[in-house]
Specification:
A hairpin with a 2-residue loop joins strand 8 and strand 9. By secondary structure, the protein is of the alpha/beta class. The longest helix has 32 residues. The strands form 4 sheets. Strands 1-11-10-7-6-2-3 form a 7-stranded mixed β-sheet, sandwiched between helices. Strands 12-14-16-15 form a 4-stranded antiparallel β-sheet. Helix 3 packs across helix 7 and helix 10 crosses helix 14. Helices cover 36% and strands 14% of the residues. The protein contains 14 helices and 16 strands. The two termini are 14 Å apart. Bound molecules: pyridoxal-5'-phosphate. The site of pyridoxal-5'-phosphate has 13 residues, from helix 3 and helix 4.
């Protein structure tokens, strides 16, 4: 290993092309889409490709019910509606999160309450969430970020102790599980996105789309009436007389998924197993090799977690104390100069966003859950997340990496860790 860092003109540690060798089955996708065009099946739900996808996703997750919708964020909003979130309620969600997770909270007239994360995992800290429970808390909204699984036992305790609903944002985590069981069959409702395309999109992807899974018939029926206007068979599905009397119009929203997108999603679902196993295998190799390298820490998944999906890449934490307090930007620039395909987390914590800090008159006339002047968050309130946001780095979750690439990536981390002072 030469001691001259590439950022100062030395030879980069990574010389191999960093593109993943896995190729998406584009010809198969074209055939599936063209078949539907030939059949003129371009609209509809509850039948055909939509039903087929939902049945296969149910089987994949082990859930009793599955509903496809047009986006992951709408999947979450319909789930929040299903569990009874409404005006005046509070929903606790991690500040190291994403607006698409909690936008439905706001639009239902409820207030997102941000909590801190576990610094070892960057995921919701159930103990911190518990401190924020009030009589107005209706639900917890954990985010299984990048396919890393939250502390499901901790969340289950909050569910039991306070009767809070749990709506899971598993938009990045279709293959993930807990204690040998896929997340999709956990209470109360689990939500997914289908956004993007393989291999860079959500673990199962189709351009745009989303779905929810649940084992609870009441929640299923509430999601059906909420946003599945004219779904085939909807009236036969509704057992609650108060819902059945709405007929096939339900409450009138039509958020269903596009059949062409679901044709692509079905192919993605059928090959996610291979992609996920390979990613997990390469994560194991990379994490093992980086253990103890100065400047970098690896997340410590919960013992029962079976992380999976890895949308956005594999997580690494920069440890500035190892390198004399070197700024994260400098460390990451040095690694990128060595040829490591590394990206920092771009977003800061949610509680410090202008939307939350300044508020917004959502419904006009000073109404709405985040009215200007109502903010109570300030810098320093959620310290673990605020600190981590600057230190999180992603490297690609390789499916089929070129021979020797992972070794070169590890060598780059070792080199920067060893010679940073220069
Ligand atoms: C964590 C998370 N939650 C929710 C969503 C919303 O999904 P969609 O883009 O399909 O609405 C996304 C999308 O990127 C996401 O990353």
């Amino acid at each position: 290993m030469t001691d001259e860092l590439a950022i100062h003109g030395g030879k980069p540690a990574v010389s191999i092309n960093t593109a993943d060798l896995w190729e998406p089955p584009i010809e198969e996708e074209k055939r599936a889409v063209c078949e539907l065009i030939d059949q003129q099946f371009l609209s509809g739900s509850g039948k055909g490709i939509g039903k087929q996808f939902e049945d296969e996703f149910r089987a994949y997750t082990g859930a009793t019910f599955c509903l496809t919708v047009d986006h992951g964020s709408n999947a979450i909003m319909s789930a929040l509606y299903a569990v009874g979130v409404g005006p005046g309620d509070e929903v606790i969600t991690p500040t190291l999160g994403y607006i698409g997770s909690y936008t439905g909270v706001i639009h239902l007239g409820a207030r997102p309450v941000f909590c801190d994360v576990d610094p070892n995992t960057m995921l919701i800290d159930p103990a911190d969430a518990e401190k924020r429970v009030t009589p107005r808390t209706r639900a917890i909204l954990p985010v299984h970020f990048n396919g890393y699984v939250c502390d499901m036992d901790g969340l289950a305790r909050l569910h039991e102790k306070y009767g809070l609903a749990i709506v899971h944002d598993a938009c990045h985590a279709h293959p993930a599980g807990w204690n040998g069981v896929n997340l999709g069959s956990f209470p109360d409702v689990v939500c997914y996105s289908l956004q993007g395309s393989d291999p860079f999109g959500k673990p199962v992807s189709s351009g745009e789309g989303g779905m929810t899974t649940t084992n609870n018939r009441e929640f299923y029926e509430r999601m059906l009436i909420y946003c599945h206007l004219h779904r085939a068979g909807i009236e036969a599905e509704l057992t609650n007389p108060a819902y059945r009397m709405l007929g096939n119009q339900g409450l009138g929203l039509k958020w269903r998924a596009h059949p062409l997108a679901l044709a692509i999603a079905l192919i993605s679902l059928r090959n996610v197993g291979y992609r996920d196993r390979r990613r997990l295998e390469h994560r194991r190799m990379l994490y093992r090799a980086l253990e103890g390298v100065p400047g970098v820490r690896i997340p410590k998944p919960y013992a029962k977690a079976r992380d999976g999906g890895f949308y956005g890449g594999l997580i690494l934490f920069y440890a500035p104390d190892d390198l004399g307090g070197l700024a994260p930007e400098q460390y990451m620039a040095a690694l990128r100069a060595e040829g490591v395909p590394l990206t920092p987390r771009r977003d800061g914590p949610e509680h410090l966003r202008p939307l939350i800090q300044k508020g917004f008159d959502l419904y006009g006339h000073g109404r709405g859950p985040i009215a200007p002047g109502s903010n109570t968050y300030k810098v320093g309130d959620l310290p673990a997340a605020e600190d981590l946001c600057r230190r999180i780095m992603f490297v690609p979750a390789y499916i089929d990496p070129p021979e020797g690439l992972l070794d070169q990536i590890v060598a780059a981390f070792r080199k920067v860790g060893a010679f940073y002072a220069k």
